[in-house]
Amino acid sequence: MGAKDTVIKLHNTKTRKKEVFEPIDASNVRMYVCGPTVYDRAHLGNARPVVVFDVLYRLLREVYGADQVTYARNFTDVDDKINARAAESGRPIGDITAETTQWFLDDMGELGALQPNHMPRATEYIPQMVAMIGGLIAKGHAYAAEGHVLFAVDSWKAQYGKLSGRSVDDMIAGARVEVAPYKKNPMDFVLWKPSTNEQPGWDSPWGRGRPGWHIECSAMSYELLGETFDIHGGGNDLMFPHHENEIAQSCCAHPEGEFAQYWLHNEMLQVEGKKMSKSLGNFFTVRDLLDQGYPGEVIRLVFLQTHYRKPMDWTAGKAEQAERTLRKWYSQAEQALDNGEVHPGIIGALADDLNTAGAIAELHQLSLADDVVALRASMQFLGMMGKEIPAWAGKPDIDLSSFEEKLFETRQKAMESKDFSEADRLKAAYVEAGLEVRMSKTGVELVPGAGFDPAKLEAL
Ligand SMILES: [Zn+2]
User: Cα–Cα distance between 141 and 218 in angstroms, integer?
Assistant: First the structure.
């Protein structure tokens, strides 16, 4: 069975069922994923949907053909968080958004994520947003009030909340909604808001202002993918209100279409069993991890070990294990040429609602069977290597026992002479090379950390 005959099944949030994926047009399979707001480095949780939907993109390309898939992911480059960052740093907004956009692309590239076909920036689609908002007002789904334009949830009450499984009345009762005097219904959400002279703004029929966040994705997905397209993805924290509002806007502005056919949502990320947060001190960016010496491929493999609809727990232990696994796989893949095919078991696992853990299990089997040709092709397919083995994996696996003995003997001598300077120097050099030094009465144990650099040890 070739990849072309593969039946893909995806869990559709819209129906809460795993369904056979049937594209609207197999010669142009279309996917939209909500992208980042560009004001800071992407944290590890931001990277999860990028990797999840990169795997789906790769699968779709494998099954339908690389030129038959269109993937769009936006950059939100107009937002109050960006305005705040500009105000506190004194830097122009354009500098901040350009810099953080490039950071995002660089960091996600390190994780092996392919760039989408379209990466629209919100500020490049303001006229399209204004046109869509005008259309919503004309159809009675939105209204202007005090320089704002609001979506009238009551105009679409029966449908609003279906994706996330809530009714408008429940939402009003349970949600913390922003109460504003100009809102007809407290659930009504902003399509357009007024800007002060200091804030970025564009002229519109409702005065100088800027778009709300939700309208961006509706306008850009319509421009790039049409009124009906196949897949819409994002983190499950976006399901309400963001995705609910996207559906309301798009379906009301373009009632001839159905917006997204399949909705996929990834679960959130934790760190060592806890929610990642600045107050817990376990908050870090992808760049922090890369700088600490965790290769991007290691981060990617840790991610892929957990199914996208389960919470994913990042731990240092998993990262160390993943690095050992990858070193072994690369040493095998290095022996092969680029003439292999992706193992069908891996396509099969991914076709079953992106069972990435199953795909990784298949890689372990290929490694055990020493099927280096299929292992190499399959690792490339899963985004864990390009044409070359990553440089870090080519570093020799060094025998640490002689270094352990050297430190132990030096310390034994120091105990007699009471001069510990040489032993301290040696220990500091090992730590500098990225080793954890465990000393006991009977010996020394050296444990390589994620940033271990054998070259530094060899120079001693
Ligand atoms: Zn969105």
Answer: 15
